[in-house]
């Protein structure tokens, strides 16, 4: 990881090849996530669904944790609880030592469909958060421009979301979240809807970003290969109601690259996770 100051970075896909980017600081605080015996049941008029039961998990500051499990096991619910969108019924949910009581800019959330305001340009979208909080300064604007460089969208700062490709919209959503200096990034199958090439480009981009800034990331996926490539550890949830079945270490060296997926060590790690998932 580079120091806290400016650093030179390879330009992401879509940016001019020789782009040198001045890196803004993205994370400010050390962070950690602590879940203890977290449970959640949805109670509808006709249906009662126990989504999570007794989930306990500790995530270190700067760790990249992937959350894996079968469809409907409560992965999005768990992420929603961490984001503060969904209240837990029971247990303890702490981020940076503080109980989660609602959404906050300290937790940046990225979904499968990037959330951008269609009537705002890329740059206006990035600046939306600080503006809404009354924290728009010259410095923030400069940071937005630097972040647009980082995500390879400097040339598209005045474009509207409908003028961007799928991958570009994702990168714009990234910049929009990163300007808030989140201590935790919560990502719910963010690349699930992308084509294979764009997806590989976004995985590479995320790995580079994490390698430089070591933010804490909780990344939901049901793709074993993606979890193995990205995670320091993979938390595997059981079928509904989701419980922590196992937390598997990924003993692959960093920095990682998409090409690592072809190595024997990678295939072995992937097989271990698949075994846990299927047992
Ligand atoms: N708002 C809600 N109201 C009622 N039930 C819900 C709600 N949100 C989720 N559920 C239920 O909780 C369970 C877990 O859903 P969740 O979306 O967390 O699963 P998931 O692991 O993210 O699945 P997928 O991999 O398909 O995205 C499901 O049975 C779902 O029907
Ligand atoms: Mg989900």
Automatic annotation (TrEMBL):
The keyword Oxidoreductase does not apply. It comes from the Bacteria. Residues 1-28 are annotated as: Disordered. PROSITE patterns: ABC_TRANSPORTER_2 (PS50893). GO terms for molecular function: ATP binding. Keywords: ATP-binding, Nucleotide-binding, Transport. SMART domains: AAA. Residues 33-264 form the ABC transporter domain. This is ABC transporter ATP-binding protein. It comes from Actinoallomurus spadix.
